[in-house]
Amino acid sequence: MPASPDVRPTYGNWRLPSRPGIGPLGLLGTITLLGGLILALLTALISWIAAAGIGVVITAVTIPLAIRTVDGRSGFSVLAVRAGWARRRLAGETAYVTGPLSREPGGRFRPPGLLARLEMLEGRDVYHRPFGVLHDPQLNTYTIALECDPDGGALVDAEQVDNWVAGWGGWLAGLAHEPGLLGAAVVVETAPDPGTRLAAEVLPRLDPAAPERACAVMAEIVAAYPAASSETSTFVTLTYRPGPHTAQARLAGRAGRAADMVMNLAIRVSPLAAGLVAAGGGAVQPVPAERLADTARVAFDPSAAALVLQARAENGTTGIEWGDAGPASAEETADAYFHEGVVSRSWVACEAPRGTVRSGVLRSLLEPSHRIARKRVALLYRPIDPGSAARQVESDRRTAHFMAASTTGLVNARASTAVRAAEQAAAEEASGAGLVEFGLVITATVDRAEELRVAEAEIANLAASARLRLRVARGQQATAFAAGLPAGILPWLHTLMPSQLRSTL
Question: By C-alpha distance, which of 481, 443, 401 is closest to 113?
Fold first, then answer.
């Protein structure tokens, strides 16, 4: 009997949450339209002029809600982003200067924007390993980071890769049961390797009595190695909001509550790291406070990467604190972010891969690119608690059935496909699968503004191979840059409009 070929699993069935309402209007637009029509009809009994005025107001409100961009944003959402960008530009908030010659108190180089209000705390886990905690006093959030050394897919059996993917799915599903967890992020950064670590390992071990030609060969290897190599760093961040504190912590005030939360996180580090190891994360360890500061410092000033690695190799520490991890100057434009003599551009995903994909769909996007010096890809995850997940999949299921029953022809075929997808999602959720909302932010950093065109073409090619649809984070470059760092910046926590109201638009 001939052996049957192995069938590799595929992945997909990503669905946008159903939006109640008539067509693209959404719930708020539908209520406005129907309520306005009823009001206009009642007003028409008294005055046709007043009724016509109400009709004009209804039209002015519903048309921006009915017009949708490719990624599903309403006209009001687009106008809100442009208005916010115009306000920041007129107020002078797009330029940032810090340091001893600036107006910043203390003369320190604090990170800009959303990173400025973060405070660094430190703790030790059950294995006495140090880890840093980024605390946002305004939002009352605490973020820890885990650094991974992924095994990679080279020379690995397909079954092992599938087991890693299953472990990753189980780890994401378990986040819904983490008390107080608001979101998680996976940040993969690729950058040129300056060769500092190789030089620190090889050059001190050269034997003075070795042949001159052998020493010359080793020195040539150390000098030429950085030109053909790259450095890949992988971080997993988890952001929490504390629940009720102990009586001792409440009596101790703010410092006591922070210490209580750090102690709580110290207990969770090891189980979370063990889950990442099972998902192919390789060696996983908590990130110390100084390492987080070093990462932010190098992100703002890539020229400091070699100095940071050299200081870490020679002294074991860099001495950089979070309050000095920012740039001396930064300026945000509508489609770029200038900082420390380099320029960055960020993109956000507006559509998940269509159809079914294999486990390596993002491989080309995460691998180093020879056309982009420094690239960061951040996957943002928002786990949904089991109760809300059950209600959401049932709502999607009812909406899909209603749309299928009320349409005909070609649209009915698409609605039938949506029904099957909704039924599958409901069945998987009922069997214990987790429901997670996700997004993606890509940041490319180049030396000159003229190189942005090359970087944009390269990102477009990589996104096409990953079957993603991207758009430039226009008017939000500084925020997108911060969201791509392992600092726990979750975009949905920094919006003026609550998520419940935003989902009705």
Answer: 481
Contacts of 49 (CB under 8 A, 6+ apart): none
Is residue 270 within 8 Å of residue 126, measured between CB atoms?
A: yes
Give the integer Cα–Cα distance in Å for 27 and 123. Answer: 46
SS3 for 137?
coil
Look up residue 282 and give its amino acid. G
Determine the Cα–Cα distance for residues 272 and 144; give it in Å rounded to an integer.
Answer: 11
Cα separation, 144 vs 268, in Å, equals 10
End-to-end Cα, the chain, rounded Å: 59
3-class state of residue 125 by DSSP: coil
Interatomic CA distance for residues 260 and 377, integer angstroms: 33
Q: What is the pLDDT of residue 445?
A: 94
* pTM attached to this predicted model: 0.86
Query: CA 361 to CA 468: how far, in whole Å?
Result: 10
Please name which of 131, 150, 158 lies closest in space to residue 237, comparing C-alpha atoms. Answer: 131
Region of 85 on the Ramachandran plot (φ > 0 left; ψ -120 to 50 alpha; else beta): alpha
Q: How far is CA 77 from CA 58, 410, 469, 477, 490, in A?
A: 18, 30, 19, 17, 18
CB 381 within 8 A of CB 436: yes
Reported as a single tens digit per residue, the pLDDT across 302-316 is: 988 888 888 887 788
In this predicted model, what pLDDT tens digit does every residue of 464-478 receive, in sequence order? 888 888 999 988 999
For the chain, how many helices (H) and strands (E)?
A: 15, 13
DSSP characters for 142-154?
A: EEEEEEEE---ST
